[in-house]
Write a structure and sequence with these properties.
The chain is α/β, with parallel strands linked by helices. It has helices at residues 36-47, 65-80, 95-108, 119-123, 125-131, 144-155, 237-241, 250-264, 280-292, 312-321, 335-341, 348-359, 379-391, 409-416, 447-468, 476-481, and strands at 13-18, 51-56, 84-88, 113-116, 137-139, 166-170, 173-176, 220-222, 225-226, 246-247, 268-271, 298-305, 323-331, 365-372, 396-401. It has two domains: 4-176, Cobalamin-binding domain (Rossmann fold, 3-Layer(aba) Sandwich), CATH 3.40.50.280; 202-481, tm_1862 like domain (pyruvate-formate lyase- activating enzyme, Alpha-Beta Horseshoe), CATH 3.80.30. Helix 8 runs parallel beside helix 9 (280-292) and helix 13 packs parallel to helix 15. The chain starts with 12 loop residues before the first strand and ends in a 12-residue tail after the last helix.
């Protein structure tokens, strides 16, 4: 006998909204990303027979967001009259807009359930429900299974107290059910891009490194796995995707790439995994499946990949499959910071081996990720990081300031040592790693120490390129070897 509580009746309408994620003071100039989490959630809900509409307000062009919500968006919501409004946010910087959208939705469709999701909502679920009565639920962690259960209960006004990964109110109290159940990735449909107009996501990519001479235009996100079993002290991704890594079948990943290539002309894919190279066999199987299809595509790894285990075979397979830009999670030039404070378990020899391996491929643009300003940072450890960043055969170094995301070991240490106030971060618009100023100042360094150390590394690479006459996004080794005739690299203006 079927459980009626888990059946979703027809028709049911849900509106998904991607809140703007712009944050003042951030280094990144990228503002538009495909909302892959909502596209995945929408695909799953559509497969359940639900009428799904998706509004991505990141693409909105307006000088007055409140006026847009009240004069234009609220009437649209009222006309659709959904039973549920789900509001996502890619970065913590979206939280301010998530609040405004939730208030608007409450006024426009008073009877709808207002549900928040995303990393900020996950980290602050209890505080959000405590402060903002117009928000009904928070989906803690990845949303597919939680949404499936919640919608079935909302449709028949059933009890929600046993739904995994749900924060809700009950009898005047706030309850937060921890996220313990995670989706089998192979059972989920691929993200449904028909929910949006892909042309809205075209960005200026003329200066992007494109050794195959392919236009980038719209970089498409791809996930071949979720989560990571490691526990770097600053990382919060396990709060969303769980404690263990889960891989997608390589054939399904390649199917998605090929479908996007055929349907939308996609040629550039951003592999968004938390730990792409954790399993060598997964990398080999995935690359073989992509290469077998002979697709003319390019890949990059904007989230960074683990340095450990990057040898010639792994890097060679990735390059053969289309990898043109790799970001390496080096973190620090100081073993004390890298291994003691962060917990990376990574030696200088492993770093040099991985970077030099990547540098042997002239068509591969190599970026080193560094984190400055851990609580244990000292002037000496900063000097170690500066020296390593300048000596490695990198094409670029990206310097981030340590960000104390709630739920991480770094956050707990910062609260313990009174480097931050625990109550400050919910409303912080800049809780994001690519800000130009630190979130906190460690005890043994100054603000000037941190900012100067970061600028020292960044200016080194700018000066080196200027002296050699190499464009910003072209690898040094490629320039030295001379461009192949078939490459159509567009020099940035």
């Amino acid at each position: 006998m079927q459980n009626k509580r888990n059946e979703i009746p027809d028709p049911m309408r849900i509106v998904l909204i991607n809140a703007p994620a712009s944050v003042e003071g951030c280094s990144s100039q990228r503002s538009v990303y495909f909302p892959i989490a909502l596209l995945s959630l929408g695909a799953m809900l559509r497969a359940q027979g639900i009428d799904v509409r998706l509004f991505d307000l990141n693409n909105l062009q307006t000088d007055n967001f409140n006026e847009y919500l009240n004069s234009f968006f609220a009437p649209q919501l009222a006309l659709i009259n959904p039973q549920v409004v789900g509001i996502g946010g890619l970065f913590s910087g979206a939280w301010h807009y998530q609040k405004l959208i939730a208030q608007c939705a409450r006024r426009a469709v008073p009877g709808a359930a207002i549900v928040l999701g995303g990393i900020h909502a996950t980290m602050f679920a209890r505080e959000i429900l405590d402060r903002y009565p117009f928000i009904d639920y928070v989906a803690v962690g990845e949303g597919e299974e939680t949404a499936r259960a919640l919608l079935s209960r909302i449709s028949c006004s059933a009890d929600v107290s046993d739904i995994d990964g749900l924060a809700y109110r009950a009898n005047g109290a706030i309850k937060v059910n921890p996220k313990t159940q995670f989706a089998d990735l192979d059972s989920l449909p691929s993200p449904d891009y028909s929910l949006i107009n892909v042309n809205d996501y075209h960005i200026s990519t003329q200066s992007w490194w494109s050794p195959k001479g392919l236009p980038v235009g719209r970089p498409y996100p791809i996930l071949t796995s979720r989560s990571c079993p490691k526990r770097c002290s600053f990382c919060s991704m396990h709060l969303v995707h769980g404690p263990q890594i889960r891989h997608r079948a390589p054939v399904l990943v390649a199917d998605e790439i090929e479908r996007l290539h055929d349907m939308y002309g996609a040629t550039y894919f951003e592999v968004m995994d938390d730990n792409l190279t954790y399993s060598r066999q997964h990398v080999f199987d995935l690359c073989a499946e992509i290469s077998r299809r002979k697709l003319r595509i390019q890949l990059c790894t904007p989230n960074g990949v683990a340095v450990k285990g990057l040898d010639n075979e792994v890097v060679g397979a990735l390059v053969e499959a289309g990898l043109v830009r790799v970001c390496l999670a080096i973190e620090s030039g100081s073993p004390v910071i890298r291994n003691g404070a962060i917990g990376k378990g990574l030696t200088d020899e492993q770093i040099w081996s991985a970077v030099e391996t990547c540098a042997r491929f002239p068509e591969l643009f190599v970026v080193g990720f560094f984190v400055f300003g851990m609580p244990q940072e000292t002037p000496d450890t900063l000097v170690e990081s500066i020296n390593l960043a300048k000596s490695l055969p990198l094409d670029k170094a990206a310097i981030f300031f340590a960000t104390p995301y709630p739920g991480t070991a770094l956050y707990r240490l910062c609260v313990r040592d009174k480097l931050i106030q625990a109550t400050d971060l919910l409303e912080s618009p800049g809780l994001k790693n690519d800000t130009d100023t630190p979130h906190f100042i460690p005890a043994n360094v100054t603000l000037s120490d941190l900012v100067t150390a970061r600028e020292t590394v960044l200016s080194y690479y700018r000066s080196k390129r200027q002296a050699m006459g190499i464009p910003d996004n072209q690898p040094f080794r490629y320039a030295a070897a001379g461009p192949a005739p078939s490459i159509d690299f567009i020099v940035p203006a």
